[in-house]
């Protein structure tokens, strides 16, 4: 009997220096699920300006993964939109939404970077900053596709699934047969991508990928990833929370 290759996932989140200095918790969240050779994964950055950004990030990650893991990939784009609508409805009736109005869900603002992948094809779905990367060759940095960050008129302005025009901000990027996938929040993108967010920087994605492929001990792999994201230099370069998810397909 032919064995189905097992999907491996390593993910972690690191509290940024800014939140540490203010003694506030990490606002990022991630969630993923595997079923056979199918993967659904989402990372989210809760807006620092939103009172309940961390909750908004958690709800959208869990809702998307729970609803998409058993849905056919051919309907992925439609199902992603439906799942986001359900997450927004959860915020409408959340106990912290005192007015139970759509306007107040802005208090839960968060970005979305996610992927659905099954049998050699998939799609990134994306609202706001952060990034998704699919490597088509684990040893060739020229063969990949990127779901790029999207920001507003100012560097500190981005888009959230809680906005009224969220459907206009939702982007999809098709993925072919990939070897490895990466999802990351905005705290990591400047280490992984060039200034224009279109190409990979040297010395980050490929070395991390090669190490995680070679390290069979998940705890050691997670510790090494944490150490990489939480060095003194990394904290100095970017004080934001950092979430990073890797999957070997």
Task: Spell out the blueprint of helices and strands.
Blueprint: E1 8-14, H1 17-21, E2 28-35, E3 38-45, H2 53-68, H3 76-92, E4 112-118, E5 121-127, E6 131-135, E7 144-147, H4 166-169, E8 171-175, E9 180-184, H5 186-192, H6 205-214, H7 218-229, H8 232-237, E10 242-248
Antiparallel strand pairs: 1-10, 2-3, 3-4, 4-5, 5-8, 6-7, 6-9, 9-10
Concise overview:
The protein has 249 residues and is an alpha+beta fold.
- CATH structural architecture: 4-Layer Sandwich
The residue fraction in helices comes out at: 25-40%
- Please give the radius of gyration in angstroms: 17 Å
Strand order of the largest sheet: 1-10-9-6-7
Q: CATH H level: which superfamily?
A: PPM-type phosphatase domain
Morphology call? globular
Q: What is the terminal separation in angstroms? A: 20 Å
What is the C-level CATH assignment? Alpha Beta
Q: Give me the secondary-structure category.
A: alpha+beta
Low-confidence sequence ranges: none
